[in-house]
Write a structure and sequence with these properties.
With 265 residues, this protein is of the alpha+beta class. It has 3 helices and 12 strands. About 10% of the residues have low confidence.
Length: 265
């Protein structure tokens, strides 16, 4: 009886500790400021907890010779997810062969906050892996964002779909007449298209033109693919154009990413 009570108390303590960590993390979720040392430690603790919680699911298929009839639906979902992730990982590994200009670090997505789904995500690589704030983050399908925060064991990635007026990406539009420069700023969740503003009214932009990073400014290196022009609109004064960009990346389904570190010397 005493042992049962003690075990129950220990369980309650663990649950309370986890809740406390989550509360502190939510309290620190202000994207515009730097993390304190305590917040950084708590972030790493939450990463560890996340891995422990997910272990039974990731190891489900390793349990050979055991009757799993009661968990058939779970296993089926896990298998489907694993197949998708394996394909995505193959694409990442293939991508690595072409990125000879950079030191690269592959990372796995640990978590995404539903309230900030198109704002940021957290990966399992951090300072110990040489990750720094400002590094570009890509998949085989193109640019997805940059590293915005780093702890010892994890990093936060701000996506290019983020709703942040201070987060502007300088891009180059590849046209027959040459390159035109503009700003990527905005994302339509319903259509899944990125918005490009400030395009010169005389720019000979056509549907299907490729969009890449320009390399101007300090955010991203040049030449990283983003998408293609799918729609073109002139403003009501006919002074500039707004472009709508179709990307190949499904921002709802990201499992693995590649972080571009410093160029290899």
């Amino acid at each position: 009886m005493y042992l049962k009570k003690e075990k129950k108390n220990n369980t309650i303590k663990i649950i309370l500790l986890v809740i406390l960590v989550i509360i502190l993390l939510l309290a620190s979720l202000q994207l515009s400021r730097k993390q304190t040392g305590v917040e950084s430690i708590l972030k790493d603790v939450s990463v560890t907890i996340n891995k422990v919680i997910m272990f039974p699911f990731t190891s489900l298929n390793k349990e050979k010779g055991k009757d799993q009839s009661e968990s058939y639906l779970i296993q089926k979902n896990v298998n489907t997810s694993l197949e998708e992730e394996i394909q995505e990982l193959k694409e990442v590994l293939e991508l690595n062969k072409t990125l000879t200009e950079y030191d690269i670090e592959n990372a796995t997505i640990l978590s995404r906050n539903k309230s900030y789904w198109f704002q940021n995500l957290t990966v399992d690589k951090g300072k110990k892996d040489g990750i720094k704030e400002g590094m570009a983050v890509i998949t085989k399908k193109g640019l997805i964002g940059k590293v915005s925060r780093v702890t010892n064991h994890s990093s936060e990635i701000k996506l290019i779909t983020a709703d942040d007026i201070n987060y502007k990406v300088s891009i180059a539009i590849k046209t027959k007449a040459g390159e035109n420069y503009a700003i990527l700023n905005g994302y339509d969740k319903k259509t899944g298209r990125l918005k490009v503003v400030g395009v010169d009214k005389n720019a000979q932009v056509e549907k299907g033109n490729a969009i890449v990073t320009s390399g101007l400014g300090v955010l991203f290196p040049g030449g990283i693919y983003i998408g293609v022009v799918e729609g073109i609109e002139s403003d009501k004064y006919n002074l500039s154009k707004t472009l709508y960009i179709k990307t190949e990346q499904d921002f709802n389904e990201i499992h693995y990413v590649t972080i571009l570190k410093e160029k290899v010397k």
